[in-house]
Design a protein that fits this description.
α2 (about 30-45) packs antiparallel against α3, α3 (about 60-90) runs antiparallel to α4 and α4 runs antiparallel to α5. The chain folds into 2 domains: about 20-120, no CATH class; about 120-160, no CATH class. The protein has helices at about 1-10, 30-45, 60-90, 95-105, 110-115; strands at about 120-125, 130. A two-stranded antiparallel sheet has the order 1-2. By secondary structure, the chain is mostly helical. A hairpin with a 6-residue loop joins β1 (about 120-125) and β2.
Protein backbone atom coordinates (compact mmCIF):
# COMPACT_ATOMS: atom_id res chain seq x y z
CA UNK A 1 0.00 0.00 0.00
CA UNK A 2 2.82 2.40 0.78
CA UNK A 3 4.29 1.68 -2.65
CA UNK A 4 1.10 3.03 -4.23
CA UNK A 5 1.13 6.28 -2.25
CA UNK A 6 4.89 6.77 -2.84
CA UNK A 7 4.26 6.24 -6.54
CA UNK A 8 1.54 8.89 -6.46
CA UNK A 9 3.77 11.48 -4.82
CA UNK A 10 6.79 10.85 -7.06
CA UNK A 11 4.80 10.76 -10.31
CA UNK A 12 2.73 13.87 -9.61
CA UNK A 13 5.12 16.10 -11.55
CA UNK A 14 4.78 14.00 -14.69
CA UNK A 15 1.59 14.56 -16.61
CA UNK A 16 0.47 11.45 -18.43
CA UNK A 17 -2.81 10.04 -19.64
CA UNK A 18 -4.69 7.83 -17.19
CA UNK A 19 -4.99 4.35 -18.64
CA UNK A 20 -7.27 1.42 -17.91
CA UNK A 21 -5.07 0.10 -15.10
CA UNK A 22 -5.03 3.42 -13.24
CA UNK A 23 -8.66 3.46 -12.10
CA UNK A 24 -7.75 4.20 -8.48
CA UNK A 25 -6.18 7.48 -9.61
CA UNK A 26 -9.60 8.56 -10.86
CA UNK A 27 -10.80 9.07 -7.29
CA UNK A 28 -10.54 12.80 -6.58
CA UNK A 29 -9.10 13.94 -3.27
CA UNK A 30 -12.35 15.66 -2.24
CA UNK A 31 -14.28 12.39 -2.47
CA UNK A 32 -11.67 10.48 -0.45
CA UNK A 33 -11.65 13.12 2.30
CA UNK A 34 -15.45 13.38 2.31
CA UNK A 35 -15.83 9.59 2.45
CA UNK A 36 -13.48 9.39 5.45
CA UNK A 37 -15.36 12.20 7.21
CA UNK A 38 -18.73 10.56 6.56
CA UNK A 39 -17.49 7.20 7.82
CA UNK A 40 -16.06 8.72 11.00
CA UNK A 41 -19.19 10.83 11.47
CA UNK A 42 -21.37 7.76 11.13
CA UNK A 43 -19.34 5.97 13.79
CA UNK A 44 -19.76 8.95 16.11
CA UNK A 45 -23.48 9.18 15.39
CA UNK A 46 -24.19 5.53 16.16
CA UNK A 47 -21.81 5.01 19.08
CA UNK A 48 -21.38 8.32 20.94
CA UNK A 49 -24.55 10.33 20.47
CA UNK A 50 -26.61 10.61 23.68
CA UNK A 51 -30.00 10.28 21.98
CA UNK A 52 -29.55 6.52 21.52
CA UNK A 53 -30.40 4.59 24.70
CA UNK A 54 -27.47 2.21 25.20
CA UNK A 55 -29.04 -0.91 26.56
CA UNK A 56 -26.80 -3.75 27.70
CA UNK A 57 -26.20 -6.37 25.03
CA UNK A 58 -26.80 -4.05 22.05
CA UNK A 59 -23.15 -3.18 21.42
CA UNK A 60 -22.57 -5.80 18.67
CA UNK A 61 -25.69 -4.73 16.78
CA UNK A 62 -24.86 -1.05 17.16
CA UNK A 63 -21.31 -1.63 15.89
CA UNK A 64 -22.54 -3.67 12.94
CA UNK A 65 -25.07 -0.99 11.98
CA UNK A 66 -22.53 1.80 12.27
CA UNK A 67 -19.90 0.04 10.16
CA UNK A 68 -22.42 -1.07 7.53
CA UNK A 69 -24.03 2.35 7.21
CA UNK A 70 -20.68 4.16 7.23
CA UNK A 71 -19.19 1.87 4.61
CA UNK A 72 -22.26 2.16 2.37
CA UNK A 73 -22.32 5.97 2.52
CA UNK A 74 -18.55 6.25 2.03
CA UNK A 75 -18.68 3.89 -0.95
CA UNK A 76 -21.45 5.94 -2.50
CA UNK A 77 -19.40 9.12 -2.13
CA UNK A 78 -16.36 7.43 -3.69
CA UNK A 79 -18.57 6.25 -6.56
CA UNK A 80 -19.78 9.80 -7.23
CA UNK A 81 -16.16 11.00 -7.20
CA UNK A 82 -15.12 8.26 -9.64
CA UNK A 83 -17.97 9.11 -12.01
CA UNK A 84 -17.11 12.82 -11.85
CA UNK A 85 -13.60 12.11 -13.21
CA UNK A 86 -14.46 9.23 -15.54
CA UNK A 87 -17.15 11.28 -17.30
CA UNK A 88 -14.62 13.96 -18.26
CA UNK A 89 -12.18 11.33 -19.52
CA UNK A 90 -14.86 9.93 -21.85
CA UNK A 91 -16.03 13.35 -23.15
CA UNK A 92 -19.52 13.04 -21.69
CA UNK A 93 -21.73 15.58 -19.92
CA UNK A 94 -20.41 15.71 -16.35
CA UNK A 95 -23.29 17.56 -14.60
CA UNK A 96 -25.94 15.31 -16.15
CA UNK A 97 -24.25 12.03 -15.21
CA UNK A 98 -23.37 13.15 -11.68
CA UNK A 99 -27.01 14.18 -11.22
CA UNK A 100 -28.19 10.78 -12.52
CA UNK A 101 -25.86 8.91 -10.15
CA UNK A 102 -26.82 11.04 -7.12
CA UNK A 103 -30.59 11.28 -7.70
CA UNK A 104 -31.48 7.74 -8.79
CA UNK A 105 -32.00 5.63 -5.66
CA UNK A 106 -30.11 2.55 -4.57
CA UNK A 107 -27.20 2.86 -6.95
CA UNK A 108 -29.36 2.44 -10.05
CA UNK A 109 -27.86 5.62 -11.50
CA UNK A 110 -24.36 4.14 -11.26
CA UNK A 111 -25.49 0.97 -13.02
CA UNK A 112 -27.08 3.05 -15.78
CA UNK A 113 -23.86 5.07 -16.11
CA UNK A 114 -21.65 1.98 -16.37
CA UNK A 115 -23.97 0.45 -18.99
CA UNK A 116 -24.23 3.58 -21.15
CA UNK A 117 -20.80 5.19 -20.87
CA UNK A 118 -18.85 5.93 -24.03
CA UNK A 119 -15.56 4.20 -24.86
CA UNK A 120 -12.30 5.99 -24.15
CA UNK A 121 -11.04 7.80 -27.24
CA UNK A 122 -7.38 8.07 -28.23
CA UNK A 123 -5.88 10.51 -30.71
CA UNK A 124 -3.97 9.48 -33.79
CA UNK A 125 -0.38 10.75 -33.36
CA UNK A 126 -0.20 11.58 -37.06
CA UNK A 127 -3.44 13.50 -37.77
CA UNK A 128 -5.00 13.91 -34.25
CA UNK A 129 -8.27 12.21 -35.25
CA UNK A 130 -10.18 10.79 -32.28
CA UNK A 131 -10.39 7.00 -32.47
CA UNK A 132 -11.67 4.20 -30.27
CA UNK A 133 -8.97 2.35 -28.37
CA UNK A 134 -9.20 -0.93 -30.31
CA UNK A 135 -8.38 0.22 -33.85
CA UNK A 136 -5.15 -0.83 -35.53
CA UNK A 137 -5.07 1.79 -38.31
CA UNK A 138 -6.31 5.38 -38.44
CA UNK A 139 -9.12 5.62 -41.01
CA UNK A 140 -8.15 9.19 -41.95
CA UNK A 141 -4.42 8.91 -42.63
CA UNK A 142 -3.84 5.11 -42.54
CA UNK A 143 -1.32 5.47 -39.71
CA UNK A 144 -0.58 2.18 -37.92
CA UNK A 145 -1.82 2.59 -34.35
CA UNK A 146 -0.96 -0.90 -33.04
CA UNK A 147 1.33 -3.73 -34.14
CA UNK A 148 -0.31 -6.07 -36.65
CA UNK A 149 0.62 -9.24 -38.52
CA UNK A 150 2.06 -8.50 -41.96
CA UNK A 151 0.06 -11.28 -43.65
CA UNK A 152 -3.39 -11.30 -42.04
CA UNK A 153 -3.39 -7.78 -40.47
CA UNK A 154 -4.67 -9.01 -37.10
CA UNK A 155 -3.44 -7.36 -33.93
CA UNK A 156 -0.45 -8.99 -32.27
CA UNK A 157 0.86 -8.78 -28.72
CA UNK A 158 4.43 -8.98 -27.50
CA UNK A 159 3.64 -12.38 -25.99
CA UNK A 160 2.54 -13.89 -29.33
CA UNK A 161 4.95 -16.38 -30.81
Amino acid sequence: MSKFWNHLTTDSSQSREIGEGDNLKLLPLWSIVLAILVFVGTQYYFNRMPHFPHRPGTLPMRMMMSYTTGAALASYILLVGYVSRDVKRRNMSAPMWILVVVVMPGGIGAVVYFLLRQPILVRCPNCTTELTAGVHFCPQCRFQMAPVCGQCFRGVQITDA
